[in-house]
């Protein structure tokens, strides 16, 4: 992830992984099922910026590069392990990626620094817009889940830090099926939990690649593009996108 200043924008129009913040075509088009649930990726809910801030504090002048290498290798390892059927959980993958990133940048990652950076994943808190948005969704009868690569331990810590666990009907870790998104087995956790069809479940990812995976699986998808990332060029379009959960609410509940 590119940890630049958060920009609150709405991405409108068509194109690869872009869409209008208006669900009329999705919810209200005749013959289409209505939205009944939303499944969120963890980083759409939990703010990762403190991890990068800590990296910069520990390695002044190198924090951004370390964070970028770490994040990139973290997800590359999930994909390689899924394809090769060589599973290790997301905590182990994250630690392995950190060790690689530090070595690639010739940084002295001693055991204490390694523990401190890894433990920052257990200190994550929700973005400021999360609790009010989730409360609104639940009040309007929408069921909610987390569907993420995070391990159960990582999820328990983040939910406890943020005091939002009661707002979720389901907390789903891909660890239970020993794979990672975008493996279809990972996305299928939402179907099994909600007992709904794909068309009834909106998926809300943080990353463009996850948005593509969700659309390939068949979920209607709203990309929570908090860092204004460039759209992936994978020949698939999301149903909508925006910079935060206020945009998602407008997408789900369009004004007449």
In short:
With 256 residues, the protein is of the alpha/beta class.
Could you explain the architecture of this structure?
By secondary structure, this protein is α/β, with parallel strands linked by helices. The protein folds into two domains: 24-46 and 125-252, HAD superfamily/HAD-like (Rossmann fold, 3-Layer(aba) Sandwich), CATH 3.40.50.1000; 49-122, Putative phosphatase, domain 2 (DNA polymerase, domain 1). Helices cover 45% and strands 9% of the residues. It has helices spanning 24-28, 42-45, 49-58, 63-84, 90-104, 111-119, 130-139, 152-162, 184-194, 208-217, 245-252; strands spanning 37-40, 143-148, 170-173, 201-204, 222-224, 240-242. A four-stranded parallel sheet has the order 3-2-1-4, with helices on both faces. A two-stranded parallel ribbon has the order 5-6. α8 (152-162) links the parallel β2 (143-148) and β3. α3 (49-58) crosses α4 (63-84) and α4 crosses α5 (90-104). Mean pLDDT is 89; it is low at 1-32.
Query: What's the helical proportion of residues?
Result: 40-55%
- Return the CATH topology of the largest domain: Rossmann fold
Provide the structure class.
alpha/beta
Question: What distance separates the N and C termini?
Answer: 36 Å
Topology as a string of helices (H) and strands (E)? HEHHHHHHEHEHEHEEH
The CATH superfamily of the largest domain is identified as HAD superfamily/HAD-like
Strand order of the largest sheet: 3-2-1-4
The total of helices stands at 11
Could you say how many structural domains there are in total?
2
Radius of gyration: 18 Å
Average pLDDT works out at 89
CATH class of the largest domain: Alpha Beta
Major beta-sheet overview: 4 strands, parallel
Shape descriptor: globular
Query: What's the count of strands?
Result: 6
Q: What is the percentage of strand-forming residues?
A: 5-15%
The CATH architecture of the largest domain is 3-Layer(aba) Sandwich
| Uncertain spans | 1-32
